[in-house]
Amino acid sequence: MQKKGVPTVSLVTEEFVSLFKSAARSLGYPDLPTVVVPHPFETLPKEKIKQLADEKYAEIVSKVQKAQTQKPQKAAAPH
To answer: Of 5, 15, 44, 64, which is least packed with CB atoms within 10 Å of its CB?
Structure first.
């Protein structure tokens, strides 16, 4: 979506933040907006997921709005 100019925010679990940043950087997107959630996420009870959604909502919206105004361009891939 980012390539198409659609502002995005990636949800990444704590365990994979480093891997995500490395992959994004290698693809030429060193500054992709990211929101970190607990790991493991998929085993959390529904109530906890709803609570996390409420807690992270403002951060997600803020990062989408910021991305809309900045329209980041893809960085040149490292050689």
So the answer is: 5
